[in-house]
Specification:
Elements lengths: L2 H34 L2 E7 L14 E7 L18 E2 L14 E2 L13 E9 L10 E9 L5 E17 L11 E9 H13 L2 E6 L13 E3 L4
Antiparallel strand pairs: 1-2, 3-4, 5-8, 6-7, 6-9, 7-8, 7-10
Length: about 230
């Protein structure tokens, strides 16, 4: 085989391998797009806003996120929020959902129905994933007399009314913490208030949009995973 023919063969092989690699990358990108969904517009805050602040173009922005990670209830444009105000304090980059918007029709008092309460707690969780309008499960870890611990599902499918990163003084090792306000029953609010005193750790687990399955409440696992 002549040198010229060998060079042509190597060039052709390189082009073939390059095409195969590009095809593989394109296939992976397509699979990723299918798994997370198409990009959808979501209105978020530009800066920290106090309760009562006007929601307008100066304070809001639109970002595009995969539909899998978009809030279940949100706004696609800033114009849809004309004339509204923040019902609660909002953090920069927070999704704007109906739960945090005061459109002038809110009745006085907390945004809950008769028999419900708002439970405020600081727990382990991701500030990026635990968002107002979403739903979470709450885990409680207790100390045991033998020095170990046990973790139980204290609450399932609770609606998040407001959420944001916990204050710096409440942060610590073991992962980020979030400050959340949950829609709960009076009995659940009483338990969560007590748990913040006796529990070694509280943790909130964000749920997928539309997932309202129950059946884990009260289930407990020890530090030996049994």
């Amino acid at each position: 085989m002549t040198r010229r023919r060998r060079a042509a063969l190597l060039l052709g092989l390189a082009l073939l391998l390059g095409a195969l690699a590009a095809s593989d990358v394109a296939g992976r990108e397509a699979a990723l797009r299918r798994s997370v969904g198409r990009a959808v517009p979501v209105v978020v805050t530009r800066t920290r806003l106090a309760a009562g602040a006007r929601l307008d173009a100066r304070h809001l922005a639109v970002r595009h996120v995969p539909s899998r990670f978009a809030p279940a209830a949100g706004y696609a444009s800033v114009a849809a929020l004309a004339g509204t105000r923040a019902a609660v304090a909002l953090e920069p980059g927070q999704d704007v959902t109906p739960a945090v918007v005061d459109d002038g029709t809110r009745a006085a008092g907390a945004p809950v129905r008769p028999g419900e309460r708002v439970a405020d707690l600081v727990a382990r969780g991701s500030p990026e994933l635990v968002q107002a309008g979403g739903r979470v499960d709450v885990l409680v870890t207790r100390e045991r007399g033998d020095g170990g611990g046990s973790t139980s599902v204290a609450l399932e499918d609770a609606e998040v009314l407001a959420a944001g990163p916990a204050a710096e003084s409440d942060q610590g090792g073991g992962g980020p913490r979030v400050a959340v306000s949950l829609r709960v029953t009076a009995r659940q609010a009483l338990f969560l208030a007590a748990a913040q005193s006796f529990a070694r750790e509280l943790r909130v687990l964000p749920r997928a949009s539309g997932d309202h399955r129950h059946g884990l409440a009260g289930r407990t696992v020890g530090s030996d995973l049994r």
